[in-house]
Amino acid sequence: MKSKTILATIVSGLLLLLMQCSASAADHPYYLHALSDLRAARWMIEHRPGDWQKTDDEVAAVKEIDAAINEIKKASIDDGKDLNDHPKVDEIPDHIGRLHAAVDFLKKARKDVNQEEDNVFADGLKDRSLRHISEAIKSTKKAIHA
């Protein structure tokens, strides 16, 4: 009987620890907003009406966006959506206009990710995500001026 009580106590303690360590989407609404903005930026860069050719800078920007999304998902902040799932955005027919819109979405995502965080685990996530988002902005701006 005593061993069952000890085992139940250990299991309960482990469950509580896991629940505290795992970030939930409800605890991090800014990251959910950032995921949405990152997907919208990705779509603006990837979706190409007509016969536009991808530039190396656009490919680099999408890779950085994907890396930022994956960093956020590593912290169990996952809304379960596919990378290609994005919020409904206005159709922008010209290529440069789409890239400018992507930069705007990336800046919004950077602002959301940069909110104060009290979870030590998420601090590393935040830094890595911000680095990827900044690189995506840089690459997208290079594509605009190419």
Structural key phrases:
Ferritin, 146 residues
Briefly characterize the structure.
By secondary structure, the protein is an all-alpha fold. 70% of the residues lie in helices and 0% in strands.
Written description of the protein model:
With about 150 residues, this protein is mostly helical. The chain has helices at about 1-20, 30-45, 55-75, 95-115, 120-145. The N and C termini lie far apart (about 75 Å). The relative contact order is 0.19.
Low-pLDDT runs: 14-26
Number of helices: 5
The CATH topology is Ferritin
Look at the structure and give the mean pLDDT: 76
Q: Compute the separation of the termini in Å.
A: 73 Å
- What overall form do the CA principal axes indicate? elongated
Largest sheet: none
Count the E strands.
0
Number of spatially distinct domains: 1
List the helices and strands and how they pair.
Blueprint: H1 2-21, H2 29-46, H3 56-74, H4 95-113, H5 120-145
